[in-house]
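Quick one - first record:
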Amino acid sequence: MSNDAVSDKIKKGNYRLVIGTLVGATFAFSCASLGLSLYNTFNGRPFYYNFYDGNSANFVEGSIADIVNQVSPSVVSIITESTGTDWYGRSTSSSAAGTGMIVTKDGYVLTNKHVVDGAKKIQVVMHDGTIYSDVELVGTDPLNDVAFIKINNASNLQPVTLGDSKTLQSGQQVIAIGNALGQYQNTVTQGIISGTGRSIIASDQSNYANYERLSDMIQTDASINSGNSGGPLINAGGQVIGINTAVYSDGNGIGFAIPISSIKGMLKSLIETGSAKRAYIGVSYLNITPSVQKQYSLSVSEGAYVSPDNGIIKDSPAEKAGLKSGDIITAVDGIKIGKAGSLSTLIGEHTAGDTVELTIIRDGAEQKIKLTTSAYLED
């Protein structure tokens, strides 16, 4: 056989190898896309376990417009009406606007609790201008600024796709969509993830005495304005990775969003049982930071430090599983507490009744404890 013949066979072999690789990759991608498409088609709900992590993607020319066109039909404006009394005891009424995102075909919408708090009437305005007035509040998160509302008698709505906020990277590109200033529906802004695990104190602009402490927040420089609350923070894969919640009034380009992973358990509970119950383990803890580590002479720089004074709630899942005050919880089901999320966020991916495995440090030794969560009951 001549050298030319050998060379020709090698070239053809490489050609077949390249073509085979491309065909195989294309087929695999098509199957994954078809699987995700069928999941949405037949279940009409967001998927809790994604085959594709959009946090590894980057925007390219034209992709932002494509993603906005894909997601915008799932983003809604929420108009509320509230009543009250003035200083003279006279009845007053007021209206406000916020944002929400459709999470099931049959009308469940995710938003911020402060958007619908105290509302006597809720209306939902769709991307195409359709107005729904038969809307009710069906659940709130007792530990976070999250609420679920239901558009009654709705069908064939387009839900968002939920991503994984545990794998977020600082510097990652994102976009925010919302009802800016309560006037400009589906306004789009672009930015990056500036940081994760932030703690803030958020207050209502109309009532600064009404405030709450929020932890494990995503910080972004994608503009979040009044009215954007409850809208999606979206990665380059078109997946929702956060719920836009607050803006830092004294700084430029500093906004905050709630990690989407923290609400997946409540959403699953709502879909399966009609009740949005948060999974609960019953510990009082401190997120370990360098200052907390130093103050308590802890052996690790990340995790959840169970309060040494009455850190275990009586009759709670934690007490039943044998957790003790002073324990350090470092992981949930093998996922390390810290960059992936706080203890509360990682537990928030589960529903009441799930069994989880906690990795803890007690008396300098690591051990694992299995625990069955229960539903959080408000006082």
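second record:
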Amino acid sequence: MNVTAPDWKREYQTPHGLTVHPASPVVGARITGVDLARPLSDGVFKDILDAWFQYLVVVFPGQTLDEDQMVAFAERFGPLNKSANPRTHHNKKNPAIMLISNIREDGKLIGAHPDGEMHFHTDQCHQEKPCSATMLYGMEIPSRGGDTCFANAYYAYETLPEALRRRIDGRRAMNVYDYNHADTRGGTFDIREGVPHASHPVVRTHPVTGRKALYVNRLMTGFIEGMPRDESEELLHQLFIHQERPEYVYAHKWTPGDLVIWDNRCLLHARTDFDASERRLLRRVTVLGEKPV
């Protein structure tokens, strides 16, 4: 599929009556004129999919969705991850649903990733087959902060200096799920026993658009394979700084009722800090993906 570059300056009507409003000059769009709680025709969903491939992350404001309705919409993008592991805060009734929250009941957190800032990353890159898409639905939102920032990994690769592109050509990196021990200044060579990890190309090719994206991140990429430690850390540091440049980033400020879905294969995301005394509650669903190539 050859996806053309979007026009970031103007909103437009899709063939089936949706309105697409570009959110920033680099990534993201709002889509209005659709009620996701109702079944969607194939034509309307194709409009959504086309916009998603163009803008990488799309926001549907003002939605009212129960769990089953959210799951039904997410399944249009592909099979869902239905981990029933209670440690991951998945819903027992609806195992595709995971809560993201700082709310406590009986002294226990009801959701994952409760508080604080989170560095740029791609979801599940520590797995052999990371998710292709992540969907979040905002229910309770703090008055300030807790924004989700999205960075365009296509642009990050396409604007790399030629010398850096040559250095990463054909390289692979190890990605490690070990937040508490990661050195976010440039990765870590040390993988502790039992910690999930997976090796992926530093540059991956999107299976639908055919475009190349820079596929490393500050939160979970530990090291570039086959390089001395110092060289790996220095190179990763350069890549992290480059891909997080403000001109590649769109910060989404949440409103209750926002449904957001992003393409995990060509987009990084991060979270800004917020007041931990305020409640934050979102539902998350992830779509199963393929092995990066």
